[in-house]
Amino acid sequence: MSAFELKNLDECLEKHLPAEELKEVKRILYGVEQDQTLELPASASTTAKENGFEIKGYRFSARPEQLRKPRLVRVGAIQNSIALPTTAPIGEQREGIWKKVKAMIKAAAEAGCNIVCTQEAWTMPFAFCTREKFPWCEFAEEAEKGPTTKMLAELAKAYNMVIVHSILERDVEHGETIWNTAVVISNSGRYLGKHRKNHIPRVGDFNESTYYMEGNTGHPVFETEFGKIAINICYGRHHPQNWMMFGLNGAEIVFNPSATIGRLSEPLWSIEARNAAIANSYFTVPINRVGTEEFPNEYTSGDGQPAHKQFGPFYGSTYVAAPDGSRTPSLSRCQDGLLVTELDLNLCRQVKDFWGFRQTQRLPLYAESLQKASELDFKPQIVREQ
Amino acid sequence: MSAFELKNLDECLEKHLPAEELKEVKRILYGVEQDQTLELPASASTTAKENGFEIKGYRFSARPEQLRKPRLVRVGAIQNSIALPTTAPIGEQREGIWKKVKAMIKAAAEAGCNIVCTQEAWTMPFAFCTREKFPWCEFAEEAEKGPTTKMLAELAKAYNMVIVHSILERDVEHGETIWNTAVVISNSGRYLGKHRKNHIPRVGDFNESTYYMEGNTGHPVFETEFGKIAINICYGRHHPQNWMMFGLNGAEIVFNPSATIGRLSEPLWSIEARNAAIANSYFTVPINRVGTEEFPNEYTSGDGQPAHKQFGPFYGSTYVAAPDGSRTPSLSRCQDGLLVTELDLNLCRQVKDFWGFRQTQRLPLYAESLQKASELDFKPQIVREQ
């Protein structure tokens, strides 16, 4: 591993490339031809500064239409490290994270955000690397009635903001089962619904299949005052079919709350959510935590290396991708941050009208093909020389 | 449009970034941590120099296994401009392109390539912008018995090389219908089979739906002496399901012969084929033509601009992506070129074993979901506040 740490890839390019080259590099790499900067209110910047997190603002525009007004929505994406050591009492750990994220939600409100989303399992350290059930399962809480949803519901109502948060869920009514779940709270402060992670990793230290099963909530799209939103949780971003079903159900913005580490997935990070935005003509918001987390007991990583106590670093790099293939720069790779992005949701339909992927996708062909491929005696279509 | 032309994005980064930053940028952007350079024989470089095309060599390695030997395959990808004005006689135009590409195939043989693939509709200018049927349909030829397949079959046998080429097909036996088709010629020199483009664009000047219909050949994988290969032609790269079916049928390398232009698709180019490599644990080889083509009669582009005669520039930028998410640099954006890449096909299974996407993809869920979404009375899964 290089000793040198790059805090932000985009800032590195901006620093070193001459203006003309930079402009072309940004167009080719990011699909960006104009200044994307969104001016943020001083109050939001002050809150960020006082609480020690980065805040960045960008915007995507759409062409004016004659029959529809612009549908401008501001989306806030929050990436953060944990607040207290993992040896602190569970309640205090959660309170500590609540406190720092509440300040970020306040800044999001000050920046005019209509929808905010957290990172995956945001109330806790990502302890699944340990394979220990205790005390970590104590972080699980009910999606609708748990303390975190309750706390956020008040903020949602006070700020008139939809809040999406991704937690470890305990389904008390159904056998105390544990799930990886995103909860949607309406700007009315009411619980709108939940979605459970569809694809569970079995890779590296992501021992999540030890804790919970594949989600059973389908691919719900939540119709909010600020657009139709969905959540593709973490490892689901590796599966184009998961992204596709949210699109077929009508999503305009799909959040991807994640927790992922550098050596494993970083070269994939800028590709997958952006490809999903392109293929499905919607906005995507991949969010990843930051920092390195240290656990009380040592564990091994199945990679031949000695036992250790650390997990990470999580590389942050939260960004937003648009249906036309353009994207924002990333937040920092190592610092807490709030990414505020103004979207014109009209862009989704405009890109559908222009590119036509929704019309050229031949759904019946693939429904039939996947059905055949699902059968035990599936014979792949292979051509051999006679 | 910027007056400044960037010949190659990768060379621009290499020129301006300090060594430490460049190393991290390459790791994050391209998933590359070691030197990828493949030394090429002097004869290949000489052929390239004499014939005025770029030649580059890269390699991907895999970990050593105990029970399987490395399965090293060299793949050649050819990008080129047309040779003569589009006003020249059709036969001469084709001969002109044959001549320059034959030299590139010779260089590929000298570089030890086992499989070579051309760009889309390689024997002709990309005249579909014009919507004129004549004389352009004269470029169409039979997949199995056409003059181009015949010419290439001799090279395939002489060089012991599988050749994939993408042409305008005329199906003489079935109503003289026209198709966009990739033909696979075995290294024995025999015709192995064909695949017809599954997804036909309706965007920009890509008026292909005026000429041919959606392909009816499914998603064949061709089992060759050098691995299992498939072809996703051009616009099919925007459809993750198309990529997926080649994977489910067992492909290890999927070529993407293309013809696409800058303002339309360039920010998507580095994303889609690479995402497919990741999602399906195979290698992808997106190939795009270069140059600007001028047609005899003016045509309009449906964009409010005056009628004109040019189509392009096609931006080249051919590259190879690996199942682990890494990729090679691109060929030039504006010059003929041959990209030689050595792959260890063992990497496909290794990545499947490591990441497990093939096991976590929940095919039956999506077979059922796509079936429902295909029905006329499909009701999207939408959650609304009561």
UniProtKB/TrEMBL annotation, chains A, B:
It comes from the Eukaryota. It is an enzyme of class 3 (hydrolase). Pathway: Amino-acid biosynthesis; beta-alanine biosynthesis. It catalyses: 3-(carbamoylamino)propanoate + H2O + 2 H(+) = beta-alanine + NH4(+) + CO2; 3-(carbamoylamino)-2-methylpropanoate + H2O + 2 H(+) = (R)-3-amino-2-methylpropanoate + NH4(+) + CO2. The lineage of its organism: Eukaryota, Metazoa, Ecdysozoa, Arthropoda, Hexapoda. GO terms for molecular function: beta-ureidopropionase activity. Belongs to the carbon-nitrogen hydrolase superfamily. BUP family. Pfam families: CN_hydrolase. This is Beta-ureidopropionase. Residues 73-345 form the CN hydrolase domain. InterPro entries: Aliph_Amidase/BUP, C-N_Hydrolase, C-N_Hydrolase_sf. GO terms for biological process: beta-alanine biosynthetic process via 3-ureidopropionate. Keywords: Hydrolase. Its EC number is 3.5.1.6.
